[in-house]
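Protein details
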Amino acid sequence: MDDDLIVRNGVLRNDIKQKVDLAIKDGKIAEISPKISGKDPTELDAGGNLVDCYQLTEMPKK
């Protein structure tokens, strides 16, 4: 996968019981899945905490 960032083990507001991975590409959410395969240069482990998707997509570009 060729994403800018993968956030692993996050929870979203609509389902706080399920952990998901989120892939961010070009400032937009590219994928939300229980498990995104592969490894990207930048990965964060949310540790089961709530993920604020708005803040992720507003991250400054490298």
Q: What stands out?
A: The first strand starts at residue 5 and ends at 12. Strands lie at 5-12, 15-25, 28-33, 43-45. The chain is about 10% helix and 45% strand.
